[in-house]
Write a structure and sequence with these properties.
single chain, six-stranded antiparallel beta sheet, alpha/beta, five-stranded parallel beta sheet, about 25% strand, 10 helices, elongated, about 350 residues
Length: about 350
C-alpha cells in the first residue's frame, strides 16, 4: 500500500500547523486509507512513515510531537496499539504537553472497539494498568468522547480537528504585504485580527474597540468581518451602522469601505468568517428571542435576508420590510493595502 502524504508534501502549503498521527504498524491497512482522505480534505498532519513492525520508539518522532506547530494528536486505538510501546510513549508525551498547553487537541479513534468500557477491558486483560491510567488522564474518561472507525470517520475527524485550525482553508497567504505593517494586528489560532474603530457599549457612552477578522484577500484588497454582532436594527435601519462606522474610519486613507455583510461572503467564506457572536450591547437591545442577522443581497444591497448565528439562511416567505423584528448587524471592512504606506 502506498504511504499517505503528510503536510510536508504540500507544495503551496500556507498553514504550518498540523496534527500528529499515533498508530500501531499492524493497523496500517485501516489507518492509511483514512489518512489519504484527510490529506485530500486539507487536514495537515504528520506521521512516522518509517514505522515498522515492533513499533520502536524514535527520538526524532518525539521532536515532531513537541514542535510548537503541532496542535494536536489523533490516536488510532486498537487491541494492537494497547500493546505498542511507541503509542504508550506518545501518550506520556501528550500528558506532559497537556499540562502546559490545555488547548492541545486529542482525537481518539477506536478501531474494532465498541466503546470506552471495551477499551478498558483490553487494558485490564493485557495487564497494562499504567498505560490505562495515562490514557484516562489524557482522554478525559469521564466524558467518554471518541470517534469510531466507520464510514463517517473522516468527516468526524475533520470536524473535531477544526478547533486546532490545522486545515489549509484556515489561512490566507499574506507574504510581505503592507497589511502586516498596520498596528493592532493580532495573530491567533483562529486567524488574523485587526483592532480598528469603536462601537458603543450598553450605556451608549462607553466605547469598545471593534475587532475585525481577516477572511479574504483579493489582490491588494483585504476583507475583514466584525467578530461580533455590533447592533440589532429593523429592516429599514439595517445600513445605519455601516455609515456611522465608515464616517469614523475614513480618516484612515487605506479604509476602502464598510458595509453590511453580504450573501456571497457568507456562502463562500462561512468557515473563515465563523459564527455571529452578539455583544452585550447588541444583546440588550434585541427585541425578540430569535437570534437572527441581516445579510445583504450581493447585487441589490437594499434587499436583505435573514440568517441565523451559524450563517445558515432562514428560508421564509415574508415581506421583511413589514416585519417588526430587530436583526443583528455584522459589518465587513475592506482595506486597500496599497495605501497603507501612505499613512
Amino acid at each position: 500500500m502506498e504511504d499517505p502524504k503528510t503536510y510536508l508534501d504540500r507544495k503551496n502549503r500556507m498553514n504550518q500547523r498540523y496534527l500528529f498521527i499515533s498508530y500501531a504498524h499492524d493497523d496500517v491497512n485501516l489507518v492509511y486509507p483514512v489518512l489519504k482522505e484527510l490529506y485530500d480534505k486539507g487536514i495537515n498532519f504528520w506521521y512516522d512513515v518509517r514505522l515498522k513492525v515492533g513499533d520502536t520508539w524514535d527520538e526524532s518522532v518525539a521532536e515532531q510531537l513537541q514542535l510548537l506547530n503541532c496542535k494536536g494528536i489523533v490516536f488510532f486505538l486498537s487491541e494492537t496499539s494497547v500493546k505498542s510501546n511507541a503509542v504508550y510513549e506518545e501518550m506520556k508525551m501528550v500528558k506532559t504537553i497537556r499540562e502546559t498547553i490545555p488547548s492541545f487537541v486529542i482525537i481518539p479513534v477506536f478501531i474494532g472497539i465498541k466503546d470506552y468500557a471495551s477499551l478498558m477491558d483490553i487494558y485490564v486483560k493485557e495487564k497494562q494498568f499504567e498505560r490505562m491510567a495515562v490514557l484516562n488522564d489524557i482522554l478525559d474518561y469521564g466524558k467518554k468522547l471518541y470517534i469510531p472507525l466507520d464510514d463517517k470517520v473522516v468527516g468526524n475527524i475533520f470536524e473535531t480537528a477544526s478547533s486546532a485550525y490545522v486545515t489549509e482553508e484556515n489561512f490566507i497567504e499574506l507574504g510581505n504585504d503592507n497589511f502586516l505593517q498596520l498596528q493592532n494586528i493580532e495573530e491567533t489560532a483562529k486567524g488574523l485580527f485587526l483592532r480598528l474603530g469603536q462601537y458603543y457599549l450598553d450605556d451608549k457612552e462607553e466605547k469598545k474597540d471593534i475587532r475585525w477578522k481577516l477572511f479574504c484577500k483579493v489582490d491588494y484588497l483585504y476583507y475583514l468581518v466584525s467578530e461580533y454582532c455590533l447592533d440589532f436594527e429593523p429592516y429599514n435601519s439595517a445600513h445605519k451602522l455601516e455609515s456611522i462606522i465608515y464616517r469614523d474610519l475614513k480618516r484612515y486613507n487605506y479604509v476602502q469601505s464598510v458595509s453590511l455583510i453580504n450573501e456571497k461572503d457568507i456562502e463562500k467564506y462561512s468557515k473563515k468568517i465563523g459564527p455571529t457572536l452578539p455583544t452585550n450591547f447588541a444583546e440588550s437591545i434585541r427585541a425578540q428571542q430569535l437570534k437572527v442577522f441581516w445579510v445583504a443581497d450581493e447585487e441589490d444591497r437594499d434587499k436583505l435576508y435573514l440568517y441565523n448565528s451559524n450563517n445558515k439562511k432562514i428560508n421564509i416567505d415574508y415581506n421583511f420590510k413589514a416585519l417588526t423584528i430587530n436583526a443583528g448587524i455584522r459589518l465587513v471592512l475592506c482595506i486597500n493595502s496599497k495605501k497603507i504606506a501612505e499613512e
